Amino acid sequence: MTKTARTICPWQLRKHTLELGRRTLVMGVVNVTPDSFSDGGLFIDPEDAVAHGLQLLDEGADLLDLGAESTRPGSRAGGAAGTAAAPAVSADEEQARLLPVLEGILKARPEAVVSVDTYKAATTRAALAAGAEIINDVSGFCWDSGLAPVCAEFGCGVVLMHTRGRPEEWRAQAQLEPDELLAEVRAGLAASLSTAAAEGVAAEAIVLDPGYGFGKRFDENYALLARQAELLALGRPLLAGLSRKSFLGRTLAPLHGGEDAPVEARETASVAALVAAILEGASIVRVHKVRAAVEAARIADALLAAQ
Description:
By secondary structure, the protein is of the alpha/beta class. It contains 9 helices and 10 strands.
């Protein structure tokens, strides 16, 4: 195994500075949605969502990522492709779901580092005003031109993800060869970095996410994971979100009577993919089950340290 070029560097947030690269940080997911592919509806009640977030922190999560709009394949996140149509979840509805949970978690744990998964400038402003430290934008500053200026104004941390098209387009996209895929992901992330710089978002505030499952066909995700470390050449740390993704379920199909493994049967595969991502340079992993991820990350980190 070749040595992964994960470097130690600060991630500058609004009030915190997180050290990346010495050990993998675990980001726990809290979905405040009725329709997420993984756990939609389980935590739609604010009290349940707050309790779940606190449990993830108790299990060892370094930070939380709160989301209030599903970006599953086929959804209208970002609005209909090629039109000016509004997204399925308005900013007002997104905030109504999100803010009580954000406020409840920070009231109980003022020291918690909370990210908000949104691509909307209006929701970003409201979430940052309520105490969020990070904005996790699945569109990489592509779906709302007002988002980057708000992030620059508040000086928050930013996760910029690569997304190939809109969710309603993903199932019809052509398969790419590995070299083509890597070139497209790298070019897209480079464009997001250029937008960030032009709008005054500090480079030290940015982490990049290859966007597994976001416009990548099933086997394309493995090609991307196998060469993920090449994206470190862009100069920023990497976050990997592989937990419970559908391509893992497809790989497990022979063990489930030929059908894709259901979401609840993808946990072991999620941990395996998480370890691969760390060995390929990820400094942060985004997961639904925290305790197993924390333990797996310790082993992967020990392996990297021994190289």
